[in-house]
Amino acid sequence: MSVTSKDDVDGILKFVADCDGKFEDSKCDIKESDLGGLGVFAKTDIAKDEAILTLNKSSIFSASNSSISNLLCENDIDGMLALNIAFIYETTVFKDTSHWYPFLRTVRFRDDQGHLNLPPSFWHANGKQLLKGTSFDTLFDALTPEEEIIQGFKIAVDLARKWNGEFRLEIPKGFLDIDEKNYDENFNLALEKFISVAYTLSSRGFEIDAYHETALVPVADLFNHHVSRPDLKFVSLYDVCDKCGEPGMCKHLIAEGYLEAQQREQCKSTTGNAATRVIDDDLISRLENGLGGERSDNDTDTEEEDNLTQNPDECVDIVLKNDVRQGQEIFNSYGELSNVFLLARYGFAIPGNQYDIVHLGPDFIKISKKEDRHQEKFKWWSQVGHGLFSAWYAQMRQEDEEDEESEIQSDGSRQGVNGEMQDGSGEEEEEEDEDEDEDEDDGLKSWLSQLYIDVNGEPSPSTWALASLLTLTPAQWESFFSQKATPHISDSIVNEEKLPFLAKTGNLHAKKLLSKLLKDKQLPVPIGEHPIGAKGVTDAMHQSARILIQSEHDILNKCLKRLS
Ligand SMILES: C[S@@+](CC[C@H](N)C(=O)[O-])C[C@H]1O[C@@H](n2cnc3c(N)ncnc32)[C@H](O)[C@@H]1O
């Protein structure tokens, strides 16, 4: 859980005002939310389309805006790693001398009891135990520590030492200064803190543009998430120069155009290799000098205008997309995310989350290991069947949708079709890969990942298909193929007209098999309201795990009802 203290609200608002930001505090209140920490509430009715927060991009905190931006850039550090390192330097080395400190000091990565805010992949083993066997564990493998963040920490420690050696830049105390005595212990403590900062920042960051990438945005990061009815949208022009952040023409684009024109000229006049040139400071300053006299008047005009009005392209806005009523909490959306993703990225879960599913991969694997008679069917399904069925199913769905569309059009009663975006989760992209082991691993994951029950308790198409396949009698199984190859079952040729059978959802035998599988499924028992008090397990861990597990139990129960 990453939450802000109410004692920090005035400081945050002062920071925004000092940056000439505009927050509609006559219409919005920042106060404690029932969801935990702070939230933003409507003081009056506010109409749709109103911008309740406008901030110049110069007042958000990104690695590119930070005091060490040049060092990060010189060392090719970008993305979340750059933001983490910049945050650590700003809050431990530069502190009061940093423009950002009054805002950054309000970002807390410990709870009231002093526990670090950690993702489940770095929870104490007792905490992880709470989520064992859930989709969090089996489908997403999200209890395994991510190697990338550990590598990121090592890079940060090395850079801190290098910068200290080269120009005496202080090493951030308690974060990147690892005492050689008790090295392992100190390394682990500092690593945990680094991970906590990374997790906290990623739960509060906004994708700004090609220059700033992910950044912290004061006040914007106080809106809580609503799974189905968010009230606002975050507006920021993404397409800017990735070297300086300018939204329109800038010296880098001019230099790029100049180089391209030069290269075209060279290609015309020579057939040999044209020397490749890069956009460096030297080229830019020569171009600027060349343009100097012409541009200076315009520049002065623009600067004067800038002082009077903010260029909207240089600002981020929070704009309401619904009318909101006095007293209601104003919600953002962090995305259409299941509890697994919410917990892994933001540290909370939502009861009855409409994007939740229950994964059945390990349960089918159990059957395959237990019952020899299914071996051949599993082999065929994992190697060939799943791919064949998925392609056929997708094609069939597309044809159905096209038929529906043409019916609607000829009927004329509705314009267009449902414009919902596919998230692609039903289709697996096939990547060419040299490494066969990796291919096999991906294949295994992809057929297993399609075995789930959705939030309404409906088994996925692949789940029905595999359950139906496993319940075919030996004679039906033989007749499934026009040519069956033994022992290399994957070389067999399928009777294509049999595929629709696998898409049927009411097959009695399949229903029986699924019911048994669900009853045998060993999800953790939902945890009661009271914390168990095991070592390393915080109340927040309990609460998140309880919601996530309860949601999976509810889905299983819905499915069992459907099947009975
Ligand atoms: C961007 S912050 C939102 C403001 C936060 N409440 C605060 O006090 O700073 C994201 C954090 O707020 C909390 N949060 C947001 N939406 C939530 C929700 N629907 N239920 C529970 N916690 C939520 C989580 O701790 C999450 O990591």
From TrEMBL:
Q: Which GO terms describe its molecular function?
A: protein-lysine N-methyltransferase activity
- All copies of the SET domain together span 26-335
Q: SUPFAM superfamilies from the xrefs?
A: SET domain
Q: Which domain of life is it from?
A: Eukaryota
Provide a GO CC annotation, any one. nucleus
Q: Where is this region: Disordered?
A: 289-311, 398-443
For bias type Acidic residues, the affected ranges are: 399-408, 425-442
Q: What is this protein called?
A: YBR030W
Q: What lineage, starting at the top, does this entry show?
A: Eukaryota, Fungi, Dikarya, Ascomycota, Saccharomycotina
